[in-house]
């Protein structure tokens, strides 16, 4: 059976130890299975992605000793593929325009977010609005997001609990049931920036023949949504491995915004890749 896995970072910041662990985990799994390891640059959000971050990703991974197939797929060069998937979903009647801003959603969710405990606003989108109001807002040129309607998805697919995936290589392997309700009606695209990574990633995993998605457990809820998208778009479901997340000395997840902890800074400090790998995998 073929084994194809990938590391799919978004160049919205420098990679940190957590990314190194994730890339290494996927790369080692590919080597162990005699399979293929792909690198994919998920740069559809041109408001946040920067070329210097992409350059640093390539340097960091090479420094770690990883190798990957060429050419590297850069999502910004394939936007039509993701737009086509959005169009298909819209034609199926499972997307709706949401005009609520993040501020509106926060107010509805009950207050300002705390940095460590952001309010999850996704359950407060209010669903589709009346056609005449929508018409009026569109004519005023108001910004909107395309959200996946779970209710409409349920109408098409039936009980979403029938959607499952196989989890491997984690502490809790087995058949997992999708619970997309946790994230609610998720944003898949925006009027200003087009398709987001949730749909682009699922389209590319299918297009690139990815058989094993190996990524951090912070994305397990996204997997539920992506499982719904696979069912709606008729795409295959890969095996998933949601590996544990590395924590920093304070027990917090590494974050791209913490510059001192980036792989670029670690490289510059003179630590060897071998020493870092030993620390990550120790
Ligand atoms: N591009 C996503 C990120 O950097 C990861 C998507 C994935 O691995 O499926 O968070």
UniProtKB/TrEMBL annotation:
Its EC number is 6.1.1.-. The keyword Phosphoprotein does not apply. InterPro entries: Glu/Gln-tRNA-synth, Glu/Gln-tRNA-synth_Ib_cat-dom, GluQ/Sye, Rossmann-like_a/b/a_fold. GO terms for biological process: glutamyl-tRNA aminoacylation. Pfam families: tRNA-synt_1c (PF00749). Residues 4-278 form the Glutamyl/glutaminyl-tRNA synthetase class Ib catalytic domain. NCBIfam families: PRK05710.1-4. This is Glutamyl-Q tRNA(Asp) synthetase. It comes from Brevundimonas variabilis.
């Amino acid at each position: 059976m073929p084994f194809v896995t990938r590391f799919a970072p978004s160049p919205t910041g420098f990679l940190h130890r957590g990314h190194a662990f994730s890339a290494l985990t996927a790369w080692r799994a590919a080597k162990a299975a005699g399979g293929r390891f792909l690198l994919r640059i998920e740069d559809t959000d041109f408001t946040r992605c920067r070329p210097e971050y992409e350059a640093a990703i390539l340097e960091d991974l090479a420094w770690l000793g990883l190798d990957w197939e060429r050419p590297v797929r850069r999502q910004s060069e394939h936007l039509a593929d993701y737009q086509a998937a959005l169009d298909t979903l819209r034609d199926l009647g499972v997307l709706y325009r949401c005009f609520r801003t993040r501020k509106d959603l926060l107010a509805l969710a009950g207050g300002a977010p705390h940095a460590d405990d952001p309010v999850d606003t996704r359950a407060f989108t209010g669903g589709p609005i009346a056609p005449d109001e929508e018409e009026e807002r569109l004519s005023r040129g108001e910004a909107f997001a395309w959200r996946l309607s779970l209710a409409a998805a349920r109408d098409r697919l039936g009980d979403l609990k029938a959607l499952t995936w196989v989890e491997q290589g984690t502490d809790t392997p087995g058949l997992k049931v999708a619970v997309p309700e946790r994230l609610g009606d998720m944003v898949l695209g925006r009027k200003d920036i087009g398709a987001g990574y949730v749909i682009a990633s699922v389209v590319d995993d299918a297009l690139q023949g990815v058989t094993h998605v190996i990524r951090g457990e912070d994305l397990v809820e996204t997997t539920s949504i992506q499982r719904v998208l696979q069912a709606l778009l008729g795409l295959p479901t890969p095996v998933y491995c949601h590996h544990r997340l590395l924590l920093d000395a304070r027990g917090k997840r590494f974050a791209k915004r913490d510059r001192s902890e980036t792989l670029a800074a670690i490289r510059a400090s003179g630590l060897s890749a071998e020493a870092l790998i030993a620390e990550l995998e120790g």
